[in-house]
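Appendix B. One record, verbatim.
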Amino acid sequence: MRTALGTIGRRPALGVELGIAATWLLLLAAATGAVGAAAGSSTGGSSLGAGSLWLCTFGQGGMSGMGPGMHEARGGAVLAGGLPLLSGLPMWGLMAGAMMLPTALPAVRHVGVNSLYWRRRRAMAEFVAVYLAVWTGFGLLVLGPLSSLMPTDSGIALAAALSLAALWQLTPLKRRAQRACHRARPLPPYGWRASAGVARFGLFNGGACLASCWALMLTMAVVSSARLAWMAVLTAVVLIEKTNLKPRRTALRIATLAAAAAEGTALAVLLGY
């Protein structure tokens, strides 16, 4: 018992870390359910299995496995209005938590260590809520236009998103935002000022992270297959970028990889794959 309490004391963000791990497990279970649902539909079974949440919204995979809120039951036409957008937000929030929250763990630990012990967990929860709200707001902006893509456009959209990410990696604004991700802020200790200070820090850190990584995250809105693999690769890329001691060289390498992936995707579209 003492060992467990000591571990929690030394790792104030342990709860958030466990939450990230649980999110990845949930996404893995959803992806596995999506494969099972696709297999069931190919043999004449229902396609609305556990994978419908995973497949909703984006690109070709999303169009093929949408649940009842995304497609009409028989006509297959996409419903007008905000239903596609709203049905995609839960998955977008899960992806943001799994991909971007690990990069914000130093900020979460800063909040935990610099808050009074009795309100430490509350302060970290407030930070995480604001941080994810920033990424959810970004999702509101991108899911609406991108959810209307036709299946045949998904490869072209992915190549365009990767090209945009490669270009963004080389801009001064990207480097400035990346530096801002590492800046800490003093946190008031008591009362509503403490909560307001944590919220301001979450908004600042989340905004800097969004400004740094929005182009890479945009690719997740248009990728149509192997989404979990894309998530794992992009999460590793962002983590390496944020923790590397030579950010300019790392940014150049990531830009090169993104450009190569864009060229490969475009070539695959041209060849009909």
